[in-house]
Each structure stands twice: as structure tokens, then as C-alpha cells.
Here is the input.
Amino acid sequence: MPISAVSSPIQGAGLGLKRELIPQIQHLYQDPSIANIQFVEIAPENWLGAGGKALHDLAWFAERYPIACHGLCLSLGGPDPLNTTFLKQVKSFLSAYKIPLYTEHLSYCSDTYHGEGGYLYDLLPIPFTEEAVHYVAKRIRQTQDILGQRIAVENASFYAACPISSMDEITFLKAVLEEADCWLHLDINNIYVNSVNFGFDAHTFLRQIPGERIVYGHIAGHFQQSPDLLIDTHGKDVIDPVWKLLDSAYALFGTFPTLLERDSNIPPLTSLIAEVNRIAYYQAQYGHQGFSQPTLPTALAAVS
Here is the structure.
């Protein structure tokens, strides 16, 4: 049966929900100082099967904020079969908490060694080949069939070019989006990180993005290991060139919902709010015009 459209999709500026931020947000929930937090994001792997206080906290947020799920372990480009048991758990989780959106990385994080499968605890790049386009697109379609809704995939950061690649990153990304007929989770910092690491112009890359597929975006800080090597740590403040790239994205595509990621060296909420407010400021410059958000989720035939 088709899945009904969700009436309250994410919008505006958001913040990644980390455990240490939960009591701070709850304490300031009705304070105007955090009014620009309009949605939050969680990794479903960190919440599936939650009980006790964690379950209570999740329910608290689900009642007050739209939530997006951004997965970590699906390994869309991995060699092992998709974890369909996990995906069915995700489907139930999305339904239970009325979460409209599930996204994953366009990467892989699993492998098989001596017949044993396992996770690599890193997000590794998929070779940019025609064969990989077909392989990954098929796995995305399988994921969508199981969930009964369209997903979004995030453009990934990476640090070594695969020698068998036969196309560049933007060509590969566009081909996967088209063949899989999925949405794009646009990570602005990842574009900038890759542009420095591989010597291309970030704004030229951005102009080639299929804006009609953007469902929401990420912005984050990174670590500069050397002048030509950036590491996507989400552990520092967002730098000015990344903010400028976000501003250019809004000028090109309209003010798509955008979330601040901070996964390490997490400061007090009051410090993060300054960056959330800056997202909202850039969005306000364009009057929240020009971005037509897709209906969430798209009605697809659910598998039994």
C-alpha cells in the first residue's frame, strides 16, 4: 500500500541531536534564544531499541520537533548484501516516531574477510565507475522498496582517489541520483573539503548539483591537517569559505532546510546556537523563497 504524505516536513535551520545537548535544549525549549532550531537530526543506529531515559528523551523530541534520520551503517556501496533486517527495523522506527525522512551516505563502511562480514567504522569512497553507478542505484532502489519511501543520499568526503575511477565525483553523483531516482542530502562542507583535497573549484561543483533533488543540507567544521588536506571531523566551527558556499547554494537553489553538524569537541548549546542563527540569517536573506520542498515521503509501493 502507498504511504501517505507527511504534513510537517523539515524546514528552516536544524541541529544534530547529541546526548549532551538534550538537557540543554529541554531546559531552553521555550526560550527565544533557541527559536531557530526548527528540526533535529539523529542516527537511527544510536536509538533503535532505546529504553529508559533515552526512550523518554526521544519521545520528548518527537512531540516537539520534526526529526530527520541520517544513517551510518547501511553501506550502500559495500560488497555484502543489504542488511534488510536492519532496514525493516528502521521502517518501524520511522513509523513509530513519525519521522518523515531517512538519508544515508553515498559510501561504504562494510567488508567481508575470510568469509566474515564486519563494519570498518569509517565511510569509504565508492569507485566512480559506470558499474558502481548501476550497483549502488540498485541498492538504493532496494532500500526504497523496503522502506516504502524515497530516501536521500549524501555526497561524501574522501581522501584518496580510486585508481579505477572513470568519471569525476559530480558525474558519478548525478548518475546515481538519476538511476536510483532518489533525493540528494547536500553536504556543503564535504564539497569544500573535497575541493581542497583534490584541487577543484567548489563553486563550479556546486553549480552542477541537480537542485531539484535537494531535500536538505548539512554544514559543518573540519580539521586542517595541512594546506591541501582537510579532514571532515565535524569538530570545529564552520569556516568562512564554507559559509560562502552555503550562501551560494541558497542563491542557486533556494533556502533548503540546513542542519549544523557537530560530532566532537561539542561546546555548550549557546555556542552552537550562534552557528544555527547564522544558517537562519542566510536563509532570511533570500526570504525563504525559491525552494520547493519535495513531499515527504514519496508514495512508493511498500513490500510486504
About this structure: DSSP finds nine helices and twelve strands in the chain.
